[in-house]
Write a structure and sequence with these properties.
The chain is an all-alpha fold. The chain has one domain. 84% of the residues lie in helices and 0% in strands. It contains 3 helices and no strands.
Length: 98
């Protein structure tokens, strides 16, 4: 049973890492800010979700698993908020504050 859980963890964490790398590639390659933001936010949210799902079977307690889920939810909330703020500034054409 532990080999199955270890294999599941390895597959999910590897897939999450690949999504993080794809998001980084999109950040570096896409031409405008909104395209970059879209690629980065989608890949990072799904990548972190896969990493958390992969690490859940390795959690030693329910408290540890809840902490992982809370970190993922906090990252989802902060990424959505930051994306909305950045997109709003770009849409209105204002320079970012210094």
């Amino acid at each position: 049973m532990t080999y199955i859980m270890d294999g599941f963890t390895l597959i999910c964490v590897s897939a999450g890492t690949l999504l993080f790398l794809a998001g980084t590639l999109g950040l570096l390659r896409f031409p405008d800010t909104l395209s970059r933001l879209h690629a980065l936010s989608k890949a990072d949210n799904l990548g972190l979700g896969l990493i958390v799902i992969g690490l859940l079977p390795q959690a030693t307690s329910v408290t540890g698993a809840l902490k992982l889920v809370c970190v993922w939810l906090l990252a989802q909330l902060s990424a959505a908020t930051a994306s909305q703020l950045i997109a709003g500034v770009v849409f209105r054409g204002k320079p970012p504050p210094k």
